[in-house]
Design a protein that fits this description.
Elements: H1 3-18, E1 28-29, E2 32-42, H2 51-54, E3 57-68, H3 74-78, E4 83-93, E5 102-115, E6 119-132, E7 151-164, E8 169-181, E9 192-205, E10 209-210, E11 225-236, E12 244-257, E13 262-272, H4 274-282, E14 294-306, E15 309-320, E16 329-338, E17 343-352, E18 355-367
Antiparallel strand pairs: 1-10, 2-3, 2-9, 3-4, 4-5, 5-6, 6-7, 7-8, 8-9, 11-12, 11-18, 12-13, 13-14, 14-15, 15-16, 16-17, 17-18
Length: 371
């Protein structure tokens, strides 16, 4: 299963659970923490051509800064007071000659499932930007068949059990699953999937601040609303070294805010990606660059709300498509940021099962009931 769908499902499941969990902790907390994490793992060979990369151990080192949510925002209490975190992470193979140094900058949320005076069980989800020193090159580095670009989308899911050693110091043991992919920006784009076993030390600091327990559970908009979203991204198809194509989409949907934390919706999606036409021509399937190259689908989606930010997970089925190799279903994962009451910026990716098609940026306009 594609990493983005795994991340979205786990985050959705965890946030649903937090609605019924009660914090078992003191009313005052130190607002900041810094931790060092190290891990041992490997690259999953999800394609046969990646077998040589999977025969080596990978080493993971992460430095993380976290800020504890203490109720300053309404959504903190709804999600059991998560931590907002920022990480710098390094990955290295035993023999780095084919990949070189791998670095990643990421940010995300960290949630406590269980917490007692001496123990807590935590889940973290991050996304950000990854850098691979030695991407694929047909002349100089054909061994790295997995990724063709230096800069990539990066994300991880991590779970840890923390044991309190002192009032400020914690020991952590856990596991992580990380993913690197350029989301179709440059081929090859098989991506890296890296599981690791982890250990960590975490130090909390700052003057203790009382935690606000109040929850503000009013729904901003109780009526269902119409939305229109436009987005675009760059997509490259085989053969290697070919041109990049501008892929675009427009969606018309109807959404309803069910709770302060969640919305649901559904609508019609229209996609146009010239890379589809180029990909089909490699298999001697020729379509015109007009209506035949257009894809039309219907989708349902769910959105989690974290103040002005949100996570949208969308599942759709094609009503019209010429690219049968991609299957009849598609998935869209988006991070949203509310710019105003009507306008929202979105960024994310469109995928087909285990294959990312492209990364998109876009805008969504929400029609008020008075329009």
């Amino acid at each position: 299963m594609h990493f983005s769908k795994v991340l979205a499902f786990i985050l959705f499941l965890s946030c649903s659970c937090f609605k019924i969990l009660k914090a078992q902790e003191s009313a005052a907390k130190r607002p900041y923490s810094i931790s060092y994490k190290q891990g041992l793992g490997f690259i999953i060979p999800h394609r046969e051509v990646m077998q040589s990369l999977s025969q080596q151990h990978t080493y993971r080192q992460e430095v993380r800064f976290e800020k504890q949510g203490l109720g300053q925002k309404d959504w903190h209490a709804r999600f059991n007071f998560p931590r907002i975190s920022f990480s710098l992470t390094n990955y290295r193979l035993q023999d780095p000659s084919s990949i070189g140094e791998v670095w990643a900058l990421s940010s995300g949320l960290s949630f406590d499932f269980v917490k007692t005076r001496l123990f807590r069980l935590n889940l973290s989800t991050h996304c950000g930007l990854g850098y691979i020193e030695k991407p694929f090159d047909p002349t100089d580095n054909y061994q790295n068949i997995a990724i063709g670009s230096q800069f990539n989308i990066y994300g991880f899911v991590q779970t840890e059990a923390y044991f309190r050693l002192s009032e400020r110091l914690e020991l952590g043991l856990g596991a992580s699953f990380s993913h690197f992919s350029n989301n179709g920006f440059k081929v090859p784009n098989l991506g890296y999937n890296l599981p690791h076993a982890l250990s960590s030390l975490s130090y909390s600091f700052g003057e203790k601040i009382p935690q606000k327990k109040e929850r503000y559970d009013s729904v901003e908009e109780k009526q269902a609303l119409w939305n229109i979203r436009v987005g675009a991204g760059l997509n490259e198809s085989y053969p290697i070294g070919g041109p990049k194509y501008l892929a675009s989409q427009i969606s018309l949907s109807r959404s309803k805010r069910l709770t302060p934390s969640t919305s649901i919706g559904g609508g019609l999606d229209v996609f146009y990606n010239p890379a589809q036409r180029a990909s089909l021509s490699v298999d001697s399937i020729y379509i015109n660059n007009g209506v035949e190259n257009m894809q039309i689908g219907f989708s349902l989606y769910h959105q989690l709300h974290f103040g002005r930010f949100g996570l949208i997970t969308q599942l759709g089925a094609y009503l019209k498509t010429e690219q049968e190799d991609w299957g009849r279903t598609y998935q869209i994962i988006l991070i949203s940021h509310k710019l105003s009451s009507s306008l929202t910026a979105v960024a994310g990716l469109k995928t087909h099962q285990a294959t990312a098609e492209y990364f998109m940026l876009g805008l969504q306009y929400n029609f008020s009931r008075n329009e």
